[in-house]
Amino acid sequence: MIQVKIDTKEKFTVVEPLDAYIYDNMAADLAATCSKFLQEPVKNLILNLQKVNGIDTPVATQIATIQQQFYEQNASFVICCIQPAVEDIFEKEELLDFINFTPTESEAWDIVQMEEIERELLDSNDINFDIEE
């Protein structure tokens, strides 16, 4: 079982794994922990990996899959504070181009807030477009 710290904010939740290494057998637990936030009123998630110094290769793939699920459901998922050894795994698996990541948690906050504004604008444009037809 993976140990995580959860910090809920107004527009997003920060999930921070406390384990220094995330093994393959912990990937499903991490996915379940993150995915449950898609059922919450505040769906946006930041995955802070600052304490994680290593991951098994399938974990990187699982994280990329989780992120895709969030974006498919119109929610943000940003990874921050990736340590060099973990970044190397994402690079080796050619996933860096597919994940949304930032060097710091505050930059991740900014991305979530910008994406939230973008969704609100797109939603209001859809409403205006429907009215004009």
Number of domains: 1
The largest sheet is:
5 strands, mixed
Radius of gyration: 16 Å
The class by helix and strand makeup works out as alpha/beta
In CATH's first tier, which class applies?
A: Alpha Beta
Instruction: Report the CATH topology name.
Output: Transcription Regulator spoIIAA
Q: Between the first and last Cα atoms, what is the distance in angstroms?
A: 53 Å
Instruction: Give the percentage of residues in beta strands.
Output: 15-25%
Q: Name the shape in a single word.
A: globular
Please identify which CATH superfamily we are dealing with: STAS domain
- CATH architectural group: 2-Layer Sandwich
How would you portray this structure in words?
The protein has 133 residues and is an alpha/beta fold. The termini are far apart. The strands form 2 sheets. Strands 1-2-4-6-7 form a 5-stranded mixed β-sheet. The protein has a two-stranded parallel sheet with strand order 3-5. It has helices at residues 27-35, 57-72, 84-92, 105-132; strands at residues 4-8, 13-17, 21-22, 45-48, 54-55, 77-80, 101-102. The chain is globular. It has a single domain (4-132), classed as Transcription Regulator spoIIAA, CATH 3.30.750.24. A hairpin with a 4-residue loop joins strand 1 (4-8) and strand 2. It is 47% helix and 18% strand. Helix 1 packs parallel to helix 2 (57-72). It is built from 4 helices and 7 strands; from the N terminus they run βββαββαβαβα.
